[in-house]
Amino acid sequence: MKIHTLSEESPSRFHDxxxxxxxxxxxxxxxxGVSTAWHLAQKGRSVLLCEKGRxxxxxxxxxxxxxxxxxxxxxxLPIMMEASRLWGSMxxxxxxxxxxxxxxxxxLASDEKKLAQLEAWLEVARQHQLDTRMLTAxxxxxxxxxxxxxxxxGLYTASDGRAEPxxxxxxxxxxxxxAGVKIRENCAVRTxxxxxxxxxxxxxxxxxxRCERVxxxxxAWSSLFLGNLDLELPQLAVRSTVAATGPAPDVFNxxxxxxxxxxxxxxxxxxxxALCDFREHYIGKSSFRYFKPFIPAIADxxxxxxxxxxxxxxxxxxxxxxxxxxxxxxxxxxxTRVLNPMANRGCVERMKSRIAERFPALAGVEIKxxxxxxxxxxxxxxxxxxxLDSPRGxxxxxxxxxxxxxIGPAAGKLVAELVCxxxxxxxxxxxxxxxFSDGSKMNLGPAL
Length: 448
What we know:
Elements: E1 2-3, E2 24-27, H1 31-42, E3 47-50, H2 59-62, E4 66-67, H3 77-88, H4 90-94, E5 105-109, H5 112-127, E6 132-136, H6 137-143, E7 153-157, E8 161-162, H7 165-178, E9 182-184, E10 189-195, E11 198-204, E12 207-210, E13 213-216, H8 222-227, E14 236-245, E15 255-257, E16 261-265, E17 271-275, E18 279-282, H9 285-289, H10 291-300, E19 305-308, H11 332-335, H12 345-358, E20 367-377, E21 384-389, E22 392-398, H13 404-419
Parallel strand pairs: 1-20, 2-3, 2-13, 3-9, 5-15, 13-22, 18-19
Antiparallel strand pairs: 4-8, 5-7, 6-7, 10-11, 11-12, 14-17, 14-20, 15-16, 16-17, 21-22
Helix pairs in contact: 1-7, 1-13, 3-13
């Protein structure tokens, strides 16, 4: 079985010259950072996109590839609906095949409790005029080549879709570069310089760049970066393993998940598989520092998370990872160019048995590759999208909690509007940075 990942040994594709100054520096070339840079360039702004490792090297190329409106937090859903529309034109906009198809998403319920949870979300869908509906067991079995009698019903959104992450995000980066964005891989931003409380420059490992705005879209590394600026972002990360089959019979052409396993059809004729009831958290300093704000999320789904004693060396929350550094020092971002966790082989074996149990036509299908990613999450399972007052000029776009791939194009558009001081098309109060420090009660996003 091949282990599929981008790593720091992967060839660098983007190595534009470092400018002396730009209007905006974007830190992190995952889908949100790339999309932000692209939208800023379309507004005529000069942009440098800095990536410590590889474009989409971490979670943006390792996710499930779902583009899902269904099950979203009510405040997140309008943004996701816009993202769905943007995905519909992605091939035309990038000039590349990103693998986007609207083949629908089905959440499957094995018991009455789960079925009631799915039915409750229907009201959110109705409020936003989304094409979501409940399916009976008979309807599910007519849509899927599955073993009968497994599910009582399901929630279905036909307009939801899928894309190929390792193709889509680099294609967006090429489009951004074509629009004028300067993109530099192997270029960690060490810190931000301020003048009278206002952003004035970034210091990269290759030298300083003057700028007026900085967007932090650094995924699992965001909390570590902000801590060096004396800003507290409660963020933890979990390891999630994904596998891909070889070519397989067509049991369902969209995305589906029950309480135990999720799958989606791939462009290459196989399926991507993942477990819904298993993730791993490496215990580190932040596990203790941010335990209190995470208590509601832990209590809501404690059975699905396995604790591991410590993170590998140089991970964002490893015990030995530096929390403080100067602009002239080598940083953790240079010590780990690409966060590249090993796949959990035990998870892969469970995926094989579970998918075969549900879909007999897939019994014995080959697992051709597997990989893992570190998913950053916030205490309430929704992102931070906010322009800070201190330092003024810093905009945060992080903490997408495993939901960033689908929403990325619209999130980038919103962040670009924030950077430019324009009217933002959506209410971002739910996603403000201050919610973690102003005494607000944590309002968990739906665990669907």
